[in-house]
Amino acid sequence: MELKITIIIFSILLIIFYILNNKLIKKENFLTYYVPFLGDNNNYINKINNFYKNNDNLKNYFKHKFNYNPIIIGSYKEEEEFIKYFMNLLISKTRLYDISNLFYNNKIKLINDLEKNKINIGFTNIPTLELYAKKYSSVLSKIFAITPVYKEFLIIATKLKYRMYNINNIPYGFVIGILDNENTIFYYYKKLLTDLNLDYTDYKIKVYSSEKSLIENFYNNNVNMIMYFSNLPNNNIDKMINYNFEKDIIFIPFNLPKKLFNLFNIKNSFLTYDYFDLNKISESYLPKKFGKYEFVKFRPIMKFLTLDQIMITNNVLDNTVVYDIANFFVRYTKSLNNSLPENVKIPDFKVNTELIKYMNYHPSIVKLFGDFGFQTFEDNENCVYFVGKKKCTKKVLEDNGFI
Questions:
Q1: CATH class of 62-363
Q2: What is the pLDDT of residues 374-401, one digit of tens each?
Q3: What is the pTM of this model?
Q4: Which helix (H) or strand (E) holds 178?
Q5: Considering only CA atoms, which of 321, 320, 317, 348 is closest in space to residue 332?
Q6: What are 29-40's pLDDT values in tens digits?
Q7: Of 221, 219, 214, which Cα lies nearest the Cα of 178?
Q8: Domain coordinates in residue numbering, the chain
Q9: If DSSP codes are grouped into helix, strand and coil, which group holds residue 16?
Q10: 347-368 as b/e: b if 16+ CB within 10 A
Q11: Which of 74, 180, 187, 322 could form a disulfide with 364 if both were Cys (CB 3.0 to 4.6 A apart)?
């Protein structure tokens, strides 16, 4: 009798153990999202700490396994700070696991390596893409856009003693210093001057391989003016201002007469304009007064010409990887900008109608545009409320009381 009771109890315990074990297996069958070393003693993590301070930190996002295939990002040395932040945050918020970076000095070679699938992702701009297409007679059929990632400002600097106060009125014989990488952007500066109704043969253009050497030669009066695309704020520019004891270095705003401005825009529709607070550069710069301009601490806003740096990929990279990267920008641009340096803020994710004049978006990006309401087949103005959130369909409109 006692033996039967013991067997029955043992059998019941075995059944209970089986049921509990089965439930535990189901509960533990997921990937754990883990943020290592998040705390006060890690200087690097503290810089990006704001990125993790959101409602979904430490959660498991992923319904699928991590992607362990290595992803190689091609970029330029001057983008190193941005790439460092971007790669770490991308790994933390997507299913990508192995991301590495390869630096280039030659912008054309970067695109060529991307087309040959030696790298998976790269950064470029429209003028460089145009030059690449001309050099290789390419229609860019293997290169696709993911999204613009940040802007570079056209820095135009000269000195008061040269009496040049307007970009469309550069004195004859001026020596202009430009920043170039393996002569891949040189042609664009010639186009820029031409589109400003200036004859570039009236000037002597000197090409420098680094921002540091460009600024040094400007500081030492080897050139009258420097003109190049760069980030703002900028440590090299701050140093140039701080060592300018004569206080005669001035930045020229990109202001044009209305008629010339309209013609310039038609010829350069891929360029944009932005207004920058000069208080964000070295405090030694302001106040400044030249020509019709006066910039002081309480009126520090200057107009700049800007150029988008675009993240691109090829036709080989897996569609789900491209989608994950774009999804990262849709969901985390705001949080990412709280963590990135001031000079590399990322614009809101959207359909760039100027960009598609020059290259196609990747098919995964087109799909994402639909999934997140950036594009829709519904002819309903209320779809604007779902942009960046969900696909705008008739059912969604009905469920939200718009039909």
A1: alpha beta
A2: 998 899 999 999 998 899 999 999 989 8
A3: 0.78
A4: strand 175-179
A5: 348
A6: 444 444 444 444
A7: 214
A8: 1-30, 62-363, 372-403
A9: helix
A10: bebeebeebeebbebbebbbbb
A11: 322
